[in-house]
Amino acid sequence: MDAPRNIVVNDFMFCADHGDEYCHACCCDHRLTNNIRIEDVLQDDSRFDFEHDLEERQSINAYALGAVAAIQTEDSFECEKHSTVDCERCFDWVEIVTKHAEDVEELGRWNLGNTER
What we know:
The chain is an alpha+beta fold. The protein has one domain. Helix content is 25%, strand content 15%. It has helices spanning 31-44, 93-107, and strands at 6-9, 12-15, 22-23, 28-29, 67-69, 77-79. The chain has a two-stranded antiparallel ribbon.
């Protein structure tokens, strides 16, 4: 069995086949390492105030957010909307995770169903 293939979009890692941070089919979970990349910013963000564990947060799907392989290099991904490699507007992970956290405040738990597909 081959090792799972991964992609990196604006510094976050996802499974290449399905675009998920947490992929059951590929047996990979990139949420922990992705969280580490943004945890300092999240701690400084006054909107980000909840008691739920980030490791259990809803998985992000890069393809559902419009990530496509960039033409100039097969290792880069751009957004469909702006055709920008690692677009900080479409792939603003801090904003996306914060939005999920705000939803958690309403629900009282992480919504583990991937609603972005």
